[in-house]
Write the structure tokens for this entry.
Amino acid sequence: MSADAMTEPESIGHYLRTLREQQSLSLEDVEEATRIRVEILRAVESGESTNRVPAAYAKGFIKTYAEFLGADSAELAERFKGMHMDVSPEMGIPAVAALARGRRAALSRRALLLLVIGVGALVAAVIVYCFQAEIFWRYKLTVRAVGRVPIRVYRDDKFIWGTTIEPGKEKSWRGKKSVKLKISRPENARVICRGRTIRLPEGEIVSVIFDHRGIDTKIIARWEEPARPGI
């Protein structure tokens, strides 16, 4: 049979099957050589390839199959196109499959958008936290006790804490405008500001103030004292 004698759609498959049998090849032999599955090859030979795969793919299988058998693959592919493909190859995929693929793509884009929004919100929260910690709570003092240290703490000129720090313990405080410490037994305290140990005057009670003017230390006569101007 010649390719010119084919008029019916199944004639292409019959023609290919005849060529295969003339060469004593099994479908398994063709599958191994072309990587086209046996069930697809069988559908091509029976003229039912478009029932198994989109016409655009079936055309490619027929062309590959024909090339392997030594037939005029281009002519067979064009004949198949004229019989089965009244739309462009790009439109050969069934509409349902295309719709499902479009939905999957939309879901993927939505998931990516949500991920980007979530990461952006997290980054913004971290930036705000760091910004506030650095700008709005910019003053920080740390006390490390080598002995018992009675202490009172004032943040932005308001009393917030009073206790005794036990030996070996360490406490830190921050303020927006200032941090002020009143320390009894200052010989037992190591006051640290920005990684530097502050030298305390010798006295029974000392105060340490950290504000926009820097560090100020002095001896005080009692726990209570007038507020420092400008704080």
Remarks:
- The beta strands are 139-145, 149-155, 158-165, 170-175, 178-184, 189-193, 196-198, 205-211, 214-220.
- The longest strand covers residues 158-165.
- The two ends are 106 Å apart (CA to CA).
